[in-house]
Amino acid sequence: MEYISRHMESRILELSRSYFAILLTGPRQAGKTTMLQKLRERENIGRQYVTLDDLMERSLAKNDPAMFMQLHKPPILIDEVQYAPELFPYIKMYIDQTHNPGDFWMTGSQIFRLMRGVQESLAGRVALLHLSPLSQREIIGAPCVPFTTNIEHFLAEQKQLTPVTTPEMFSRLWSGAMPGLVSGQTPDRNVFYSSYLSTYVERDIRELSGNIDALKFSRFLTAAAARCSQLLNYKALADDADIDLQTSKAWINILETLGIIFLLHPYSNNVLKRTIKTPKVYFYDTGLVCYLTRWSSPEVAESGAMSGALLENFTVSEIVKGYQDAGLEPYLYFYRDRDAKEIDVILEGDGKLCPLEIKKTASPEKRLTRVFQVIDKSPLRPGTGAILCMADKFSAFDSNNLIIPIWMI
Fold first, then answer.
1. DSSP class per residue in 253-297
2. pLDDT over threshold 70, residue 173
3. Average pLDDT over residues 108-136
4. What SS3 state is found at 30?
5. How many CB atoms are closer than 10 A to CB 155?
6. Residue 1 lies in a domain
7. N or C: where does the chain have the smaller number of CB atoms within 10 Å of the terminal CB?
8. What is the pLDDT of residues 226-259, one digit of tens each?
9. Tens digit of each residue's pLDDT (9 = 90 or more) over 362-389
């Protein structure tokens, strides 16, 4: 099985020189432990490894964290640290006594619940990173470049990257981005996703919410997948899974905590008063969406009713992964107002708003950029906008509106 090197590797080694602790969160099977084990071999300083998936170690860490720390001296890699938040105050004490950068590497498969324990104990001492499933750039071996609408960047990149056709693109998004699948470790995609859901997701959900009806949760997850790239509608999800509204909200929170979905929030400010408040829901892995919504092949997914939503989900998740892999926070929003004007994605940075529309077409029309004018009223300056589409090469309508192929993201 071939290891696919991750963009985040250099960032972790760099942060390890200045931070006492690094906490890497992300969904199960995204490759967190594999990557840190590779880095551990590379740094070759005798870093210990302990996983709290081991019930003996977990019990010790929870019930006698002081003893755990005596037995497992830094430098150390602690896997699945969310199982023993009791360790955090002891890690803090150790750091405050020794001040050794890079002493603690930790992974966690739960994002927000975990953060709270960390923020209380390790504020200022820990670098927080999020590892998602593989990005397309990692899969093809291209460098890590967080998405911008910089013309020079795309002119240079065009010479480096090979164009991808629409059928090839749908093959990628249908196949998914989990390292176990991409590396060929589990060749059968259906077997991979079915065991992923039953082994990890259901177990972690029980951990977070106690007794849960697995059948209803499965229906809920499928309903969420069927509505990817759409406004989050708790009521519709509740109806589909035959649960109440409160449970629907709790389950969305759990899916977000486990790093399976993320929410894109609407852009608004004091001037743009007519914007809606509801977020949109996206999955980190479109392969999981295709599996849940029963698209049996890339061809069927491409011609099916969800093809536009799948491509949008794929594109937005690739932009998010590009920022996360560089250790940066993506400032992404979408725009929709009560007059039904809509912009798929707004990228905020350097005091500018860059509007992005995602379309399945290979030859977009300039009229698609008209809606970008709605952000002219914003206090931030409009930046360069773009139509992200299936074009075979990078081009532009004019200096403010680019045509960016999705395979270049």
1. HHHHHTTSEEEEPBP--SS-TTB----EEEES-HHHHHHHTT--S
2. yes
3. 85
4. coil
5. 10
6. no
7. N
8. 999 999 999 999 999 999 999 999 999 999 999 9
9. 999 999 999 999 888 888 899 999 999 9
Residue 69 near residue 57, CB atoms below 8 Å: no
One-letter amino acid for residue 156 of the chain: A
Q: Is 315 inside any structural domain?
A: yes
Do residues 108 and 168 both lie within one domain?
no
For residues 207 and 164, the answer to whether their CB atoms sit within 8 Å is no
Q: For the chain, what is the mean pLDDT?
A: 94
Q: Can you give the residue range of the structural domain that contains 110?
A: 8-130
Q: Residue 87: is its pLDDT beyond 70?
A: yes
pLDDT score, position 113: 63
The DSSP output letter for 265 is P
Examine residue 259 and state whether it is found in any structural domain, yes or no. Answer: yes
Strands, E, within 233-383: which ranges? 261-264, 280-283, 332-336, 342-349, 352-358, 381-382
The answer to whether residues 251 and 141 touch, using CB atoms and an 8 Å cutoff, is no
CA distance 281 to 247: 17
Paired tokens of 90: 């002891």
Integer angstrom CA distances of residue 11 from 22, 130, 215, 385: 11, 12, 40, 29
pLDDT band at residue 120, thresholds of 50, 70 and 90? confident
The pLDDT assigned to 340 comes to 82
**Number of Cβ atoms within 10 Å of the Cβ of 375:** 23
Beta bridge partners of 238: none
Helical axes 8-16 vs 32-43, angle rounded to 10°: 60
φ, ψ (nearest 5 deg) of residue 19: -105, 145
**Running DSSP on this structure, what letter comes out for residue 107?**
E
